[in-house]
Design goal:
The protein is an alpha+beta fold. The chain contains five helices and seven strands. The protein has one domain. A hairpin with a 5-residue loop joins β6 and β7.
Length: 190
């Protein structure tokens, strides 16, 4: 079964548009903030980290905790290429990967969400804070995203949805949780 996404795979019947292959990250950030307003979300539910918060410290801690980087080498464009802890991935779920996040992440837990992108020709991760059910509402409305990271604020686990729509997990018991979820989905589809 082919997953369906807005404006992807085939032209939208109503508008004739196809899902964008790429988008400026300032546009994705603006779209997230517009959706926040449209969905009437408070800062307690979802917010972008300000430049005055330690977003660089968060990014550094993520790299230190979850990634192996060879001395003298630049940080990888995609974190999932260098995970150092046990990892597991799947792209065999019946629906879009973001639809399953609440089955992996405690809905009451406030987490970091990282949006991978470019700023002034440099790789960058834009950080947000929120709870997964609210984040899922936003992701369901986005027309394009490339890579998203969902991270425990205690740095116990990290979940990635990459540009191949693959769900990748590392840290804590996340690999076992995703294996169990994938098995459950396979059992329901037979």
């Amino acid at each position: 079964m082919m997953k369906t996404y807005p404006f992807m795979n085939s032209p939208n019947a109503q508008t004739g548009k196809q899902r964008l292959e790429a988008k400026e990250w300032s546009e994705v950030r603006a779209e997230l903030m517009q959706l926040k307003t449209k969905l009437n979300l408070s800062d307690d539910e979802f917010r972008m980290l300000s430049p005055y918060e330690d977003y660089q410290g968060i990014e550094e801690k993520i790299y230190q905790t979850f990634c192996t980087i060879d001395n003298g080498k630049k940080r990888p464009v995609w974190l999932w290429h260098c995970f150092k802890q046990e990892k597991y991935f799947t792209d065999f779920l019946p629906d879009a990967p973001e639809c399953y996040l609440h089955k992996l992440i405690d809905p009451n837990e406030s987490i970091w969400m990282g949006v991978f992108g470019m700023a002034k020709q440099q790789d960058k991760i834009w950080f947000y804070e929120g709870k997964i059910l609210t984040i899922q509402k936003l992701l369901a409305e986005l027309y394009f995203f490339d890579e998203f990271y969902f991270v425990s604020k205690k740095y116990q686990w990290l979940i990635c949805i990459n540009h191949h729509d693959t769900l990748i997990v590392t840290g804590g018991d996340m690999p076992q949780k995703l294996k169990a979820l994938e098995q459950e989905m396979m059992n329901h589809s037979t």
